[in-house]
């Protein structure tokens, strides 16, 4: 099967490497308007050939959109305008409601499958890509009723070929939940990084005093602004609500500290400790995927 | 040298294991008022024998206090009341101003060395201890002018025997910087965990949708309330200020999201990306310690 990947960064690049290694794709056509990326993608073997978008659409059975979510919303209608009825398009963006809305009522809507693989690192570009990024991760497919059955089936086959678990979910529900479990973490981390950088002008102090806990909480502050600004924009309503709750909880914590109310602090932290069970659940979830 | 360790949890236990393995301690006397911990400490080999506080103080050349910071402030004066002039006491707490204040003017103040090893994990108790916890980490010694030279020298030798780097700093300065690079990370993580747990009643959703980024930012929410409540209490003034700045920055981020100001969001995140250089600096710092 010929697969075109539009956007040869961490996500698109890793997908391409994985689908080539496992034989799902007989050929990967790469599309990217960043020349350095196309050059690197050829060197690394992410893409077998680089083509224009139009050529890629004509030549492939599967078209994967792996660009920032604002660019994806612009690209998708143009791609659907041109595809044949045997081709499917899927996107891999972190927000799902907007992209589903933008093609609502399009004549070829049913050839599109809205997906979100829950995988990534804080690194970017083709050189950050690796073929096992998606292994034992969850791939979410949204609003599957709006896609042809064969298209959904093929998208599911593609993800399962990478040892992923496929989960179905309405796009609006996806965007709300993902605001809590992913977008909030990123904003918390970006802002933590900023707050410390603002005040600790003497880097030696950070080097000496920051431990593994600091590193762990600010790791996501390394993430790509080009990828995240459009996500925060598209999911603004949900994120604003979730962020408001986070700020409210921080203010409660601050009051307890100001009032030196150790008992109540203790209680809050004990409740937060329950996250241990959740984190073990996540690991178990991945482990079960591997065993199945 | 006979070393007494008071508090046989992650920190005290790891120190004991390290000092026994490297030969610095010929014998470890363990003190802990938690019976399960003393039993486990003997089983694991953290302590050679368990003794009362009074016996431990009489029998050892080095006394290490590794209990929560509120308990440490109560213990230290009582220990200083009884020690001989050849003995030194050091504490390992995450806050330094209060403990230095509590023994200001004590007749044996100069036998005490205030220290803070920048090391730890989110796990607790003797079973979480391991002998290399401190390897290539920084050990901070505060207000060294208030301690006898031989006491400071011995504390430094102890840390260096574990391949640590020793850094000197006034206690008040320590407490301000550590509020930024450690205490804030913990509050951010505790509160993030709470916020998500409050709303995501259906754990399956978290298991399916949470990725490695979420796990990384909430890892510290597993930390021990018994250890952290007294730290937040003792460093309340600094933490409140730092937390206020973090909340202010989150509110700025929220406004940008509400106004869908992608350009300014992009700029903030690009500034936050500078944390990459800092994190590399931390790794390099550790690496240089190993090489030296």
From TrEMBL, chains A, B:
<dbReference type="InterPro" id="IPR046826">
    <property type="entry name" value="PDH_N"/>
</dbReference>
<protein>
    <submittedName>
        <fullName>Prephenate dehydrogenase</fullName>
        <ecNumber>1.3.1.12</ecNumber>
    </submittedName>
</protein>
<dbReference type="InterPro" id="IPR050812">
    <property type="entry name" value="Preph/Arog_dehydrog"/>
</dbReference>
<dbReference type="InterPro" id="IPR003099">
    <property type="entry name" value="Prephen_DH"/>
</dbReference>
<dbReference type="Pfam" id="PF20463">
    <property type="entry name" value="PDH_C"/>
</dbReference>
<dbReference type="InterPro" id="IPR046825">
    <property type="entry name" value="PDH_C"/>
</dbReference>
<keyword id="KW-0560">Oxidoreductase</keyword>
<dbReference type="GO" id="GO:0008977">
    <property type="term" value="F:prephenate dehydrogenase (NAD+) activity"/>
</dbReference>
<dbReference type="InterPro" id="IPR008927">
    <property type="entry name" value="6-PGluconate_DH-like_C_sf"/>
</dbReference>
<dbReference type="InterPro" id="IPR036291">
    <property type="entry name" value="NAD(P)-bd_dom_sf"/>
</dbReference>
<dbReference type="Pfam" id="PF02153">
    <property type="entry name" value="PDH_N"/>
</dbReference>
<feature type="domain" description="Prephenate/arogenate dehydrogenase">
    <location>
        <begin position="1"/>
        <end position="287"/>
    </location>
</feature>
